[in-house]
Each structure stands twice: as C-alpha cells, then as structure tokens.
C-alpha cells in the first residue's frame, strides 16, 4: 500500500510540473498530547501576558511590543525542549495592545491567535487586557452591519460598515449619523476591530453619555486605477497619492455613501444631524470633505490627521479663508494629536496655527507622551462622540 501511495505522489508531482527533487519537508507540529493553551499566547490571571510561538527550527525569536517606532521594544524569547519560544510581560494596564514576532529577521503575526490588526498587508497581532471601555460588557448591544453597494463614482463594488444602536428599527425617530474614516494602510475593519467602535458605542450609550446615532465606516482607500496605495513609494504618497485618493473618496461619500445610508436607514437629513471624523489619512479625508461640503455637516474632527500643511487642497484653503461661515456652521471642530507624533504632528500644528490666525473656533487636545497611535485615537473618539448631536454651548 505504501508503494502505491508513493507512486501516486510521484504521478501528482509530475502532473503539476514540480520536480520531485524540489519537494520540501512540511513544518512540524506540536505534540498531540500537549494542550493548545501551552503553546499559544495567553493572558495570565494578573493581567500579564505570556507570548508563545511554536517554532522548533528557528534560531532566534523575539516579540516586539508597542505601536510606534518610538514605543516599540524587542524582547528576546527563550526556547524550551519542545520548540516553544516564550516571554512574559509585566502586569499590564487594561488596553488593547499590538505586537508581532521577529523570527530570524522575519516579521510575523502571531499564528496562534485569530486576533490580528486589520490591515491591507497584515503584519501585527492584538491582545486585549480587560478592564476598560474597550471591553464587551453585559449591556444592550447595537448591531454591526455590512452594506455592499455598487459605487457609480468609482465604478466598483464597495462596502461600508454601519453600527446601529440597540433596538434600532426603520421608521422610528430619525437618527443622526457619524461618518468615520480609518487611517492609511488599514481597512474599514480597523476602526471596528482595533478602534473598538462597537464596544465604545455600546458602553457609552449604556452609561447615558451619548445620543443614539448611526456610525458609518467607509473604506478610506478608493483603489481607483490612478490611486492604488501599494503603487506609490512612501516618499511620494503626500505629493501624488493623497490628493488623487481624497478627491475620489470625497465624491464617493457625497454621491454614493450618504445617499445609500439615507435610503437604507431612517436618518436625519439636516447638517446638524451629520458628523464627519477620521484618523491620520482619514483625518485628511474628513477635513477635505468637511470643508468642501461645509453645508452638509455640523460636526467635524481630525485625529492626528494629515492636513493642507503638507497636502494642499484648494477647496479646503478657500473655505478656511471664510472663518465666519465655519464658525456659524460647525457646532464642534476638533483637532487631536499625540505629543510625540512624528508622522502628522507638523500637520496638526500647522492646521492649528492656521485656524488661530483665521479666527476659526475649534477645540484642541494633545495627548502627553504619545505618538501616532490608537492610544490617542480611541479615547479621542470616545470623547468626541460624547459631544455630538447635543445642544452646542456657543
């Protein structure tokens, strides 16, 4: 029987055009007698984390923690006799943490975890230490819906994520809408999975800290032929990619997405019932669309957003030259940045200076000791949504 199976394998390899001499050995697996929990990353009772990776053939493995170049640290892991590499952290505060493995110089996600950072090129894993607003609590839960649609503007099949509050039913009282854009390199699921929008909204609503609303998360990247992110070297993004993509995304928002949401849900149609926000690249998108269509929105925020300081936009510049119109229209205009943000810190500083010179009213918050990261954007989001759709204090 073994001879027949060997012969069959040779026939299959030959039909596939793969020389038998090139067949590689398959990777080894942990012993079937060992519980899976002993060779995958796990949260300990004291809120420390033991990072584990089964890699018996590796010569060196480390786990890299942190979310920015300034905060990242590499921790050498030790290998036991069964090929499991491990390292344990100190006790961690409640939060959602990023990490990845360095295996002989190769960056790898944690293959023992399903919890990865949603990216266009996935290379980072996540682990939640409970005890904060990011948790799944025993409160009424809203629904997360995925809407697929045909974008006439982009001539492509697209989708948006929509969070609806607990008990939402069509035909009830019209609800206000927050449109929220994610950052560069991520996907719409980044705002959902890593940004924890559903959990934040559920928990704040249960505490009576926010008004019932819809949250719509489009894809910031349009992937039009002239603006596919992967086709641009990093040094060319702000010069070429950002303006092209922002123009396309702006048209998609106004001509496809808002009409779609208004037709599928019972929504407010007035500007005071629409908010627009985003982080990083999404912050630039919010700024472009918010200023280009000022009469369509009553609330605007950019969290560590790229601005016209580095990526000029004529429509934004024209509108910023009319401070009275902005002050009359926007109930809240929020700027947020991390103190050590080396990616868009100059953008926010330049926008802040311009708004001050023009006499535009805005709120500003700088997060001490933090950079271009979710530890800025999640609390900034939670704070911003608590200001939305309430009687403004002018």
Describe the protein's architecture and organization.
By secondary structure, the protein is of the alpha/beta class. It is 28% helix and 23% strand. It is built from nine helices and 17 strands. It has helices at 2-15, 188-194, 197-206, 237-264, 281-292, 314-320, 323-329, 345-358, 374-385, and strands at 42-43, 49-54, 61-65, 73-76, 78-79, 84-88, 95-103, 106-108, 125-129, 143-151, 156-164, 177-181, 214-217, 274-279, 299-303, 332-338, 363-367. An eight-stranded mixed sheet has the order 10-11-13-12-14-15-16-17, with helices on both faces. Strands 3, 4, 7, 8 and 9 form a five-stranded antiparallel sheet that branches. Helix 4 crosses helix 5 (281-292). The protein starts with a helix and ends in a 9-residue tail after the last helix. The model is unreliable at 1-5 (pLDDT under 50).
